[in-house]
Amino acid sequence: MTSEKKHGAGGSTDRKAAGNRNNGNEKKNTNRSYKNTANKDTASNLRPDRPDSQKHRPKTASAVSPASAEDVRVGDTIVVTVKRIGINGEGVGYYRRKAVFIKGALPEEVVKAAVTKAEPGYLTAEIKQLEKKSPLRIQPACSVYETCGGCQLQHMSYEGQLRAKEELVREAFARYTKRDNIPVRPIIGMDDPWGYRNKAQLQVATRDGRVLTGLYEAGTHRFVDITGCPIQHPGINSVMQTVSGIVQKLGIPIYNERTKRGALRMVVARVGTESGDVQLTFITAGNELPNADKLVALVRETLPSVKSIAHNINRENTPLVFGETTNVLWGDERIREKLGDVELSLSPRAFFQLNPQQTLRLYDAVKEAAALTGRELVVDAYCGTGTIALWLAPFAGEVRGIEVIADAVEDARRNAELSGASRASFHTGRAEQLLPEWVRAGTRPDVIVVDPPRTGCDRKLLDAIAAAKPKRLVYVSCNPSTLAKDCAVLLDAGFRIEWAQPVDMFPQTSHVECCALIVRSKE
């Protein structure tokens, strides 16, 4: 799932595992914060701080290639041959058998790099000079690629990106399951890896008297204008640019994070890829949206594609985009979207996959893995707004979705009604509690589907799945590392992995989705 979908944080597992890979024998192979910090785990979160005597040693910027990895200090220059791409899009190589993570480096490149962090198990460094360039290196299409942080791989050819992501999946399985024979299929990429994102959640700021929409550079308060973002749907870019001009014309005060003054914090736009209809939400730091009536009038006059205008209130100092209160200013509360034959009704806060084209391919892999004949009971254990459950419902005897967020369950029920999915029902609760209750009552699922947050499945759910003994488990993952870790638990519980299908849902980024078919071993 995307980094927006669930609230679990994604860990930088390459760094966590680096200490176990210092022998140099490398195995083969989206709720994004509006501050743009998702999937940006810092090394300080992954390793204990070194003692002050080690942590604050004098920089030796002139030093080149210390004799031992243990002698390396911050500021030293080292030469590294990059082996692969890491889970956050960084280049991964080794210096004297110690793992080195270098932002912007590509496989097969020889890099002269300045060390920025020296930890017992790994180093981080930044490129000073490319002594040998990769043939996969290209000029990024975006002018703010280096500062925005929303993409991590625009400097790599798309063919290279696909190869690297497939390798991430293979390497994760090998590392965490201790098996080199997991059947990983060739990754499914996009024909055109641009303009695919159907939703933008952007900060609003002023610069030189102009109102702009964009993101904050990762880990900073520096605003980056992303007008014309090449991975956003063109309709989103057009709407955002027009809305910025309207907000400027009306003099709506922009919220300032430092002074805590102003009103408008963010603008969120979603486009229905089937209809072209746009849903627009203005997020303020207080109860009021100044000049709301004029704002609505000008949006309606200049943007006929906008069918819904809402106002969300988020007073909290939080990375979460939305607050709890949303009021419709004009139009329908929801816009219609269609995914194959599944009809969806999306409120401003409802989750929907950001790349519908690739979602169809991912869900087709889910359908293949489920191998339904029309008689099976399917349980979707992290059902969200019901898209996977509804995708499978026409082919199953019964589908039950479980979701902890009550609003999402209501959306799922509404979507089931729109789609005429009489065989689907949705239940509020935790799957690790409801699934065992159903099994004890004599209802044992034939197929279980999980699509968890980046942190993976709750261990109690894995235990419940093992106890339920479904014929098939379909695991949809947005984090290869937690997928592989959970598979290791399931393998020990008597399951086997039939195949894994990577899907590139987010070209130009380091993210990769995967659908894995897991079955019970013969007893």
UniProtKB/TrEMBL annotation:
| Chain intervals with Basic and acidic residues compositional bias | 1-17
Its domain of life reads: Bacteria
Q: Which residues cross the membrane?
A: none
Protein's recorded name: 23S rRNA (Uracil(1939)-C(5))-methyltransferase RlmD
The protein's matches in Pfam families, at most eight in alphabetical order, are given as: TRAM, tRNA_U5-meth_tr
Say which family it is in: Belongs to the class I-like SAM-binding methyltransferase superfamily. RNA M5U methyltransferase family.
Give the species: Paenibacillus contaminans
The region called Disordered is annotated at 1-68
Residues that coordinate or bind S-adenosyl-L-methionine: 353, 382, 403, 451
Gene Ontology molecular functions: 4 iron, 4 sulfur cluster binding; rRNA (uridine-C5-)-methyltransferase activity
Q: Which residues form the TRAM domain?
A: 71-129
Q: Which UniProt keywords apply?
A: 4Fe-4S, Iron, Iron-sulfur, Metal-binding, Methyltransferase, S-adenosyl-L-methionine, Transferase
- Residues annotated as the enzyme's active site: 478 (nucleophile), 478
EC number(s) given by UniProt: 2.1.1.190
Please name the NCBIfam families in this protein's record.
Answer: rumA
Annotated Polar residues bias: 33-45
Sorted alphabetically, which InterPro entries does this protein's record hold?
MeTrfase_TrmA_AS, MeTrfase_TrmA_CS, NA-bd_OB-fold, SAM-dependent_MTases_sf, TRAM_dom, U5_MeTrfase_fam
One Gene Ontology term of the biological-process aspect is: rRNA base methylation
